[in-house]
Amino acid sequence: MTEPHPPEPVEDLDHLLLDILMALHGVFVRRSAEAGITLLQATTLQVLRNPLSMGALAELLDCDASTVTSLADRLERLELVERRLDPSDRRVKILGLTPSGEALRQAMDTSVVHEVFDLDRIGLADVAGLVKTLRGLLVETAPRPRPTPAAAPLA
């Protein structure tokens, strides 16, 4: 009888990343509900760290422009985002976080990370090294929309 071979490091990484994804998703879903917003609304707040055009947001969220319009309407009513015209093309609407939206985004960021990871077990230098390593390994499968100069942070 042959003994099962130990998992390959890539398989270990695959399992670990899936475990992390599921843990982050669970916490993020719960935190979204506690904040009184949907998962898509919370995801939008995270994506809008830098203001984006409505079209770029639709592309990034992989949804229809009409979905982004209704999403923006709901988030505006909650006073979490605001729209403005792009000064270089007045047909384009830029969506950005309000101070309340930024505060909620930051609160969700902090609570999610600290609930899933015990960062007290490693130093800040190790956290910075981990971030650098993961960024270096990440394969960009689809270009992420970058903010344009016209998409400066909203006041």
Overall residue-averaged pLDDT value:
86
Oligomer: single chain
Categorize the overall geometry: elongated
Q: Could you say which structural class the secondary elements and strand pairing correspond to?
A: mainly alpha
Strand content: 5-15%
Low-confidence stretches: 146-155
Q: What gyration radius follows from the Cα positions, in whole Å?
A: 19 Å
Largest sheet: 3 strands, antiparallel
What pattern of helices and strands is seen along the backbone? Answer: HHEHHEEHH
DSSP helix count?
Answer: 6
What strand line-up does the widest sheet have?
1-3-2
Helix content: 55-70%
The total strand number stands at 3
Terminal-residue CA separation? 69 Å
Written description of the protein model:
- This protein is mainly α and 155 residues long.
- The chain contains 6 helices and 3 strands, in the order ααβααββαα.
- It has helices at 9-35, 39-47, 54-61, 65-77, 99-116, 124-137; strands at residues 52-53, 81-86, 89-97.
- Strands 1-3-2 form a 3-stranded antiparallel sheet.
- The relative contact order is 0.14.
Summed up, what is this model?
The protein has 155 residues and is mainly α. It has 6 helices and 3 strands; from the N terminus they run ααβααββαα.
Question: Which characteristics define this entry?
Answer:
single chain; 155 residues; mainly alpha; 3-stranded antiparallel sheet; 57% helix; disordered C terminus
Helices and strands in order:
Layout: H1 9-35, H2 39-47, E1 52-53, H3 54-61, H4 65-77, E2 81-86, E3 89-97, H5 99-116, H6 124-137
Antiparallel strand pairs: 1-3, 2-3
